[in-house]
Amino acid sequence: MTIKEVEEQTGLTRSNIRFYEKEKLIEPSRNDKNGYRDYSEKDIENIKKIAYLRTLEISIEDIRNIISDKVSLKEIIEKQAAAIQTQIEGLNRAKTMCERMLESGNVSFDELQVERYVEDLETYWDDNKPVFKLDSVSFLYIWGSLITWAVITALCLIIGMLSYMKLPLEIPVQWDGGIATSVVDKNFIFVYPLACICIRILLRPVIYVRFLMNYLNGELITEYLSNYLCFIMLSVEVFTVLFVYGLIKSVVTVLLVDTVVLIGILIAGITKISLARSPMLKK
What is the C-alpha to C-alpha distance for residues 142 and 153, in angstroms, rounded to an integer? Predict the structure, then answer.
C-alpha cells in the first residue's frame, strides 16, 4: 500500500505519517521491485492508534514505550487520566471562584477583599502551591523568550561593530592550547549575529518538532536551547575579541562554564515545573 493510500484510509497527512516512521513507531516494509515503502493493514491500524493516543496528549516517548512493551497502555492511560483530572479540578476551583466574584458585583482591584472568598487563607495558599512554584521559575520563561534572543543577537551585532575597526585583518576561529590554529578575514565577526538569526529561523523549527512531540515541556525546552545556542555564539564572539588582545587563552573554559550554568538552570526549572504540575493529592 502506498503512502497516498495510507493518507486516504487514515485521514492523516503525509508529514504525520512520515514523522511516526522517523520516530520508529511504524516500520513499513519495502517493495522488492521499486524500493518504495509498502504499508500493510497492520501499519494502517498502528498509525490510527498512534494518532489517537496523540490526541490524548500522550507523548511520543510514552507511545514508543507502549509499543516496545516497556510499559502497558493501561498504566499510561491511568497516569494521563490522573493528570487530566488534576487539571480539571484546578480549573473548576478557579471557575467557581470567578463566578462568586462576578455574582458579588465587586470586581475592581481596589474593592477586592480576598477574605470574602477564602475562609482559611493559609490553607488556600497551601492548596495553590503549584501556582507559586510556576511563578518561581518565571526566569526560565524569560530566558526562553523572543526578547532574550533579540537582546543576544543585538549584543552580537554591537560587539562586532564596536570591535571591527580595532581588530587585525585576520581573526582566529580555531584554537589549540592557547594558540590560534586557523584564522579568517575579520569580517567573520559579523557571522555571529547572522548565526543567531539562522538559529532562530532555521534551526529552532527543527528543534521544536523534535521536543514538542516527545516531551511535556517541549516548547519551553525548544526556546531555551535556541537561545542557549545563540548565547554560545555571543560567548565565542567575545572570546575571539579577548583572545586577539591576549586577555584570555582557552575557549573551552568559557563554553564549559556556559554549559554547566545554563543546563543547571534548565534542570532546576523543569524540575520545579514538573512538581507544580503533579497531582495535588498530598494536600
Answer: 15
Alpha-carbon distance of 80 to 12, in angstroms, equals 24
User: Could you tell me if 54 and 63 are in contact, meaning their C-beta atoms sit under 8 angstroms apart?
Assistant: yes
Whole-angstrom distance, CA of residue 186 vs CA of residue 171: 5
Residue with cell 508529514: 15
Stated pTM of the model: 0.52
43's grid cell: 501499519
- Nearest Cα neighbor of 80 from 50, 109, 57 is 57
Task: Compute CA distances 127 → 72, 122, 226, 245, whole Å.
Answer: 32, 9, 35, 57
* pLDDT of res. 279: 44
How far apart, in whole angstroms, are the C-alpha atoms of residue 193 and residue 251? Answer: 18
Sign of the C-alpha dihedral computed for residues 182, 186, 191 and 193 taken in this order: positive
pLDDT in tens, 33-56: 777 888 999 999 999 999 999 999
Residues 192 and 236 sit within 8 Å (Cβ to Cβ): yes
* 282 pLDDT above the threshold of 50: no
Which amino acid would we find at residue 152? I
User: What is the share, in percent, of the chain residues with pLDDT greater than 70?
Assistant: 83
Contact 240, 173 (CB under 8 A): yes
Instruction: Look at residues 192, 175, 152, 189 and name the one whose alpha carbon lies nearest to residue 243.
Output: 175
